[in-house]
Predict the 3D structure of the following.
Amino acid sequence: MTRRAAGADRSLEDADSAPPDHGRTLLQQMLRVRRLEEKCVELYSAAKIRGFLHVYIGEEAVAAGVMATLGAEDAVVATYREHGHALLRGVPATSILAEMYGNQEGCCRGRGGSMHLFDAARRFYGGNAIVAGGLPVAVGLALADKMAGRSRVTACFFGEGAVAEGEFHESLNLAALWQLPVLFCCENNLYAMGTALGRSESQTSIALKAASYEIPAWSVDGMDVLAVEEAARRAVDAIRAGGGPHFLELRTYRFRAHSMFDPERYREKAEVSTWLERDPIEALRTTLESSGKLSDKEWAAIQGEVDAEVAAAVAFADAGTPEPVEELTRFVYSDRGPR
Ligand SMILES: Cc1ncc(C[n+]2csc(CCOP(=O)(O)OP(=O)(O)O)c2C)c(N)n1
Ligand SMILES: [Mg+2]
C-alpha cells in the first residue's frame, strides 16, 4: 500500500469514528482501573497475589479526574491504595501486575508488591504504606522543584485518615509557609479501616482544616469525574501560576472492604447500597449516553479494549519469573565494601 493510500484509509476511519470525546476518555480511564482491581481481587483469591491488597473500586473518579490535569513533568505521590494511580500515571498494567506477583519484571523487581508500586521515570513516587507518609515526600519534591525554578506540580493523594497524623499538619504548614507547588488530594471515603471519620475527628470538614493553614481548599463531589477534573484543573492552573499549594477534599466511597482481611462490621449494608447507586462509572456512562456522546458500539469497544489490556497483563504476570531468592540482598546492602 502506498503512503497516500494509507493516509486515505486513516481519514476514512476517522470520519467513521468522531474524534474521541474527552468524557469517553475519562470513562475508559476509570474502567481500566475498575477492571484491573476486580482482576486483582480474583488473583488474590487464587493466591497468585499475596500479602496485603487494598482496592480502589468506587473511588476511580478521583484519580482519573486529577490525573487528567497533570503533565509528564509533574509528580504523583499516592498511598497503599495506589494501583489505579500508577496505571493512570502511565505505569503499564503488565508491570503493575508483575510487581504484585513478586516477579522480577515488576516495576520494583517484585520487591515492593501491591503497596509499594514506584516508577521514578514516570515521576510516580509510590505507593506509601505508612498513613500520611506520602505528604512529606510530596512537600520535598515540590521544594526541590521550587528551588530549581522548575514549573512543576506534585499531586499528593492520601486518605482522610491522614489528618490524624502529625505529618499531615507539618506538611500543610511547610507547603503553605514556603508556597510550594503541591496539589493535596484528600480521598475522603469516610472510613480509616473501621473508624468512621465522625468517631475520630471533632471537625469532619477536611477542607476547613486545610484552610486553617491558609491553603485554598475546596470540597468536591468525588463520585463525579467531571467535577473532580474541573476543580483539579482550576487548582493546577493556580499552582502553576505561582499560587502556592492547593487542597481538594474529594468526597468519595470505597465500595469494597478496606483490604482483603476486613469483615466490614463497621458500616451498614444499606449505606453501601446507597453509595453504589452513585457509581462514578455508571454515572458518567449514563450522562454520555443520554447526551448522544456514547453509542452502544463505542461502549462495547471501550470494554473490549480494557478487557484485552487486563488479560494481557495477567498473561504477562503468569509467564513471569519470581525474584530469585539468591538475589534477595541485592540492592539492600552496598556492594562497594567497607571504606
Ligand atoms: C502511621 C500508620 N498508622 C497506622 C497504619 C495502619 N493503617 C493502614 S491503612 C489505615 C487507615 C487509613 O485510612 P485512610 O487514610 O482514610 O485511607 P483509606 O484506607 O480509607 O484509603 C491504617 C490506620 C499505617 N499503615 N500507618
Ligand atoms: Mg479513608
In short: The domain at 59-79+128-253 is CATH 3.40.50.970 (Rossmann fold).
